[in-house]
Amino acid sequence: MKSILLFCALAWSFAAAAQRLVATQPPLTYHVGLQKAPLYLSYRDTLRQPSLYLPSQAEAIVVGQAGPRWAIAKREGFLYLIPTQLLSDYDPDDAAPLPLDPQTQRIAYQGVVQVPGVSQADLYARAVAWINQTYTADKELVQNPSTGELVLKGARPVSVRSEYAGVLRPSYAGVVRHTLTVYVKDGRYKYIFTDLAHDALGTRNMQSGGPLEQSKANLFGYVGLGSQKTWLDMKHDATRDVRHLATALQEAMTLQKVKKGGKDARDF
Q1: In the prediction, which pLDDT does 6 show?
Q2: What is the pTM of this model?
Q3: Looking at CB atoms within 10 Å, which of 3, 69, 139, 243 has the fewest?
C-alpha cells in the first residue's frame, strides 16, 4: 500500500513539475481548423510525439500566449501548449482590453494614419471606394467632400456555434451594427469605429444583445450563464472583425500591406 501511495505521490510531483505553463489572460474561445491540434504539457514535450489532441472543429479555451507559435489552452483543469497555426480564428490581439472612449464610454477603435503625398481629394475617393466595396448592403453613408468627412452606419453579420451530430457548426445570429467616421486631410486621415451593438434581426430563438460594452446580455430570454458564453464569443468575434476592418481600410488608403506588429497608427 505504501509503495502505491509513494508511486502516486511521485507521479503527481512529476506532473506538477511538468506543468510550468501559466494562465495570463481571461479565457477566450477559439476553434481548431480542419486538422486536429496536438496538446503538450510543456515545451520539452513538443519534441516528442503528442499523445493528446483536440479534434478538428473542436473548441480550444485559450488562457495565455507563448510567443507567435504557441498559445496556452486549458482542458479539464490542466494547461497545455497548442500550435496557433492550427486554430482557424486565432488572433493574439483578442487578449487586449477593449478600448473605451473616455467621454462616451463606448468601445472605440480609432487612429490617425499618415499617407504622405496624397491629397485630401484622393484620400476621400479611396475611402468612399473602400466603403462601397466592403459594405454592399444594410448601410447608410453620409458624405461631405468639402470638409473631408464621411459617416457610415454599417452592419456586419455574426454567427454562433452550436453542436450538430457531434460537430460545432456556425449559424446566423444577426448583425453587429457600428458607426465608422472618417476624416481626411492632405497626407493623413483619421478613423473611428464605435457604437457597436448586436441586432438579432429576428433570428429564431434569439434576442438582440444590444451594446457590446455590456458584460452580460439577454440573448435567450434570460441574463445568465446560458447567454454568457455566447455573448462573450460574439463580442470577441465582432471586435476582432472591426480591427480587421481598420487594417483593411489602412491598406486601401495607403495602397500598402500592413505589417503585423508594425507601428501603431495612433502613434504619430
Answers
A1: 46
A2: 0.84
A3: 3
